[in-house]
Amino acid sequence: MASNSAAWLVAEKVKPLEVRTSPYALPAENEILVKNGAVAVNPVDWVQQELAIFPLKYPAILGRDVAGQVVEVGQSVTRFKKGDRVLGVALCQNNIGSGFQHYTAVSSGLASVIPDTMSFEHACVLPLCIATAASGLYQEDHLQLQYPSLSPAPNGKALFIWGGSSSVGSNAIQLAVASGYQVLTAVSAQNFDYAKSLGASHVFDYKKSSVIEEIAEALNSTSTAGIFDAISANGAIQACLELATRVRDTKFVSTVRHPPKELPNGVTAKMAFATDIPNNKVGKAIFEDFLPHALAQGSYVAVPDTHVIGKGLEHVQAGLDYLKAGVSAQKVVVSL
Q: Which residues face 40 on adjacent strands?
């Protein structure tokens, strides 16, 4: 049996992570075991290390994004086989299913095969952010958009995304365009071209004092399918809630963090969780029916760009610190 090691968070709020041995375990019946070729860092990882926002049993392993090769397949899994190159969301429900290690058990419902031409470093930027975006865009208790396809037809409706250059926002743009929606997004001026390259038709500078009025005017000139807050930080959720008060067609905001308890009159909001979709029809629509084929034909790209911080688990802590300092249109990655 292969040996495993992980970057451990040994106790609450302890730095740095420590690289130690970790159990090598066979996957459950609906899981695949992935030998990780690269892992990506997300804001929730450094926030958990420094603020302990979720209760964990320590020592613990963090990490939600993995890409690598399937080495074991659960007995109920038929979509994958040993040797497949895949990306997947690490659910972190236990240490075996966490990302910052050499072998991770991944739910088959949150995994996709990747083309031979795609590196693990590029593939691992996708899993958590596409799952989070899909949760907000497609679930029945969120925006309920029509599912993406390889040959989408315009449906005449518009979706607004706050933070289209973020990891989640970059994927929300691509998914919405592949679902036939016109996408409007608010980003920094330096990321206008980036957002347009992903398919956004209208971009707005979120720093402008008149940005809410400009977006509302644009949305009220068409049919609006929804408002998606892809970052929530730095006033984003407040801006989206205010926008919802001014838009004719929708009063609901799907967001990537918990919305405030006090909401504007008539407006509702809900947090989107990637963990909601592995075994429902949204997970199947994205990770089975759409993403493998879209990656293969090149119509869906792995974004944002990677910033490889180093090779080996000992570089995960540097990745957490780098991300905490702030990045724009980048995903921090560790090669393994």
A: 65, 333
